[in-house]
Amino acid sequence: MKNLFSTRALSRVSLFLCSIMAFGLTGCLDSDMDDAPEPKPVSYVSFYHGAPDAPDFNVSVDDEKINSQAFKYSNASNYLSLATGNHEISFTPVTATTPLADTTFNFKEDNIYSLFTVGSQQNVDVLVVQDSLITPGTGKAAVRLINLSPDAPAVDVAVSGGGAAPLFTGVEFKEDTPFITVTDGTLSFVVKETGTENVLVAATSLSLEPGRNYTLIVRGFQTPPAGNSNVLALQIVRNY
Predict the structure, then answer these.
(1) Whole-angstrom Cα distance, residue 19 to residue 23?
(2) pTM of the prediction?
(3) Is the model more confident about 58 or about 26?
């Protein structure tokens, strides 16, 4: 994906180089000093646009815009390093000056976070999730699930075929699960309404590399409003 973050802006808000994910937005360090700066405590943060009828956003950290291109629905970022402490994160429509969603959060040293815009345009929120990545064993990958569909019911997710038991059950809107291990390779997943055989959406031929951590994201509307085409979908994003 294209680099949507501005390097210069990132340095102004103490976002330092830490591109440890293969997908999305990346940032890097611009130092105005001749000598290398003293190491500073950092946390690691990624961003995801999951509000299916919200506009394209500009993303700001402490009032500094950090994206160089519009942050669109279903865009995902790399992990970026951020100086520890309290920071205000805001998401402002590219055609506006007032944020549609914002949050202030205390980012702790060496912790890893994902920030999701969630909900519908009339009620967009910022969901902060602490990521507890794991190290899968040989021939394994790790997956977790997050439900970002504002009108879908609680969901179960299973690997397709063979009558396998669900990997995740009863995951409601804005809920996430811990990472678990699965066999690596090309897998297909099915999303069902919890406790039923009602299939909501399926995703086929998703490639999971050994040793990697992935997030399965249920996103979009089960019943889209008029003029909206962001139907229910299952997206996979590699965290690390």
Answers:
(1) 9
(2) 0.86
(3) 58
Helix (H, G, I), strand (E, B) or coil at 38: coil
% of the chain beyond a pLDDT of 70: 84
Who contacts 100 (Cβ-Cβ below 8 Å, separation ≥6)?
Answer: 54, 55, 57, 91, 92, 93, 121, 124
Contact between residue 129 and residue 113 where contact means Cβ atoms under 8 Å apart: yes
Task: Give SS3 for 118.
Answer: strand
- Provide the pairing of β-strand 80-83 with 42-49: antiparallel
Answer yes or no: is pLDDT of 31 > 90.
Answer: no
- List the beta strands (DSSP E) in 136-198: 140-147, 155-159, 168-171, 180-183, 185-193
| b/e code 95-110 from CB counts within 10 Å (16+ = b) | eeeebbbeeebebeee
- Given the structure tokens 């897998």, which residue do they identify? 187
- CB 153, CB 124: distance < 8 Å: no
Q: Which domains does the chain have, with CATH numbers?
A: 7-130 (2.60.40.2890), 140-238 (2.60.40)
pLDDT, position 26? 37
Question: pLDDT tens, 159-186?
Answer: 997 677 999 999 999 999 999 999 999 9
Give the helix ranges, DSSP H, for the chain: 7-12
